[in-house]
Amino acid sequence: MGRFFGVALLAGLLPALARASVFSLSELPWSLKNQNGSIVVPGSVPSQAHLDLLKAGVITEPLLGINEFTERWIVNDNWTYTADISSFVKTLPKSSTQKTLLVFYGIDTIANITLAGHPIAWVNNQFQQYVFDVSDAIASPLGKNTNLTLSFESAWYYGLNASTRPDAESFPAVGVDFEYVGVRNWIRKVQSDFGWDWGPAFVPSGIHKPAYFITLSETTSAEASDAQSINTPILVSQSSIDIFKQGYAAVTGVAPNQAAPWIVNVSLAVHSVVAAPRPSLTLSIPELKLSSKPISLHALPGPGKGSNASISSPTWVTAQWSIPDSIPERWFPHNLGTPKLYNLSLTLDLGGAGQSFTFQTSVGFRTIQLMQTRYPDAEVAARGITPGDQWHFEVNGKAFYSLGTNIIPFDPFYARISDEQVRWVIQSAVQSGQNMLRVWGGGVYQPSTTSVALTANFPQHATDVYSFYSVCDELGILAWSEFIFSDDFYPLNDWLIDSVNEEVVQNVRRINKHASTAQWAGGNEIEGIVQQVAEDGFPGSTHYLDEFVTLFQDDLHDVAYSATNSVPYTDCSTTHGVLSVDPLIIRFGNATPGEIYGNSERYDYSAPDAFTISTFPVSRFVNEFGFHSMPSFYSWEEVLQSPDDFSFNSEVVMSRDHHPPAGSLAWPNPNAIQGQEQMSDAVELWLPTPGTSDSNQTFAQWCWSTQVFQAMTMYSQLAFYRLGAGRPENNLGALVWQLNDIWQGVSWSSIEYSGRWKVLHYVESTIFQPVVINPFWTAASETLEIAVTSDRWESVSGQAQWTWFNWEGKALNTTHKTFTVPTLNNSILYQEVGLSNILPNGTAATDVWLHMNLTAHVGQETVTNEQFFTPASLANATLVDPRIEVTHGPGLTFTLSAKGGVAPWTWLDHPSGTVGFFADKTGHPLNGFYLVPGADRTVTFQLNAALSRVKTPNPSDFVVRSLWNNTHV
Ligand SMILES: *[C@@H]1O[C@H](CO)[C@@H](O)[C@H](O)[C@H]1NC(C)=O
Ligand SMILES: *[C@@H]1O[C@H](CO)[C@@H](O)[C@H](O)[C@H]1NC(C)=O
Ligand SMILES: *[C@@H]1O[C@H](CO)[C@@H](O)[C@H](O)[C@H]1NC(C)=O
Predict the structure, then answer these.
(1) Which of 274, 454, 793, 967 lies 20 to 30 A from 638 at CA?
(2) What is the reported pTM?
């Protein structure tokens, strides 16, 4: 209630704010009611119905306990947001040339908009922004109605209605549904809102992004000098800043000339209340003391006269500016150079009246290409490459290794995602050495920025609730982006495709200016599904393949390239590649045996396969692969409400495992037992089975052990894919499924919902290093190889050593070796067959383990890497009580000593309410290592104060565990 009245008062008391041309709808007194009016609570913008019901105390936190189930009634109701706009109308100056635009940066999803009794629009696409000229509605309210109303229809009911229309197609049932069945392909809404195998299904609704009244009027010089009442005659509601090399045509896939000048291609969507026959745009980069001449633009017609004088639709104007190649410094991913950004200043001059408007945005200069054509025969012969097509990225003309992860939505409720939360996830990715994130196509088009200083919208105002691409630009991490289509058949009705095309154009244009953008993929995993359906001979099955071709090969390809000339487009995330890039012809099953095309995934939930190299894909690029794990005990504490819930297969825990999905609204997920067993089978096979006299400790060790196993199997795959850079497959990419979590549940993530790093995230921090030393063990032939792999563009040399230890911590033998690794390649340092030749004399596989490390010189820097290997399952290792002692140093520094035997997977937990990571003295992440007697380890906890509820944690609340604690209290 407080907020309800507070907001209303604020608008009334601040005439200065209200006099400005930008009036945020968040300042209106909103109310939210359900269909029959039995619930009426204060509403807000940006928000979603669940969040306002939570704030009003009608429901408890949706992520608590089994609320995903008990709060389903919200999805079955229809929610209406209403606000009296009188407080806004009062502030409007009276002027005959004035126009008021109602601007929504996002509406989730199906809603009727009514203003002062006049219908304004029916909207149906969460991924579009909407601009309506509402001047007439405001000027002539019906009766005394001064309400702005958005009546949302439940997306679930809307979908059911749409899918049963007489003109609606039906689709084969091939298991593409998670919870809410059969509707998501009919709605342009976050696909995982209807359920996914790593998250809940809340199907929210509301105005989930900022929204405004923006009033345009002719400026007079007197008004313009009054800073509190900035009137503007224009709104720039969309922009595209596309930077590429002169002569480049992204659609052809032909490499740009790196020495050619840069072309900065600016397009602006201008709504203007004045006609400007000869406007111009001047572009400048102050840091480079570089400025264009005024570039002439298209005339702006103004609103015209009479009843059709609406400025809902913008006029697009375009200008090109050429900059010599040598002037700007290039943007590189952080691990290959500096992510250099410049402020670009845009001055739009309307001519005549002498009015000009300057605004800014940040841009970077880079070329990005997706190489998909055939490897030339000469290269195949010279480098020993398996014939077939390339599939990798090149930045600024150079091939590089893509190291990264996949991201999913950051919260089930978009409106409450915070800048701090997202920045932490992206920063954590960078901290672990990643240079690429894949923005998965079942979620959202990620936003640009909340920083009004860095938008290309004018007048400046925040257009989103959190920043994504601007953070990627700044931190130097590439973002492979996707249109929102995932694991489903998508109908080709015109009414849907028109909406899709507009959505795609808006988002491609918006994201062009971000140097971090790496590619657009049409969607996620659909190519494989339609190909499979066609091969399985479902009735009419080639029809679905044809429809896929129409949408993803033809339509979206053309729409994407109509809006960008800097970023490549492919039809699908996981693909068998192309027969031709230009025109685009998808390869599907058109393959020559023995050749390699496209990219791959790997999901194998059979525990015995976890480390079997022959089950890993031999591919140019592995764009998703994963294994699920439990969240930590700390995350369970946030959502479990009864002591009985704290066990591996309790009903609440099982209800938060959606793998494999229910495929219906059945609750709790009847298939969860399979997902739970995959984790427990793997732990039992590869680690000491947790079981102690303390049930909470046993549960905590179970949760943690699933994370240790996840980290181990992902590590061995990552090592193999990176090794592929120097093998015939020429593998140049590995993106782990997945980076972040949407709730506290069972998932494939490396970072939990709170921001807490799982074991996998620390392991990624070792295997994503530029120069790595890895063991490759083939149990069937008892073969051990040790290789050094480098992703550097220069050749790298250094020293490696490896030592066999027993579990008491005695070093049995050590080998030293120097190495040189060519560009993006390997050096095999050791190869031996037969355990009796490999193991130190007279030892058994269960009694020993191998420690490996290296020091390498990369440019001016010295880099190190460390790995561990056991020739037998740790379940059978003859572990010795490590008797770990911890000493607290200054700050949150901890020194760990093993006073007994070796402690495999020694791990520190930070207390609940804290977010951060443990680092060694160089600042590099360190946790989850083998602690050896006599070799103490010191780590410091780097606290993220913005995200931590507990700002000064007590050192004694930090917990140390190792595999020993699986079986010992
Ligand atoms: C919400 O609207 C749908 C029609 O789309 C209707 O079938 C449903 O009964 C409504 N829900 C409630 C609680 O009124
Ligand atoms: C305006 O909205 C309020 C709050 O929902 C409502 O009580 C009032 O009846 C509405 N006015 C009109 C004219 O519909
Ligand atoms: C939206 O308006 C249309 C046309 O007036 C109407 O048929 C539909 O029921 C309305 N939907 C909602 C959710 O109010």
Answers:
(1) 967
(2) 0.96
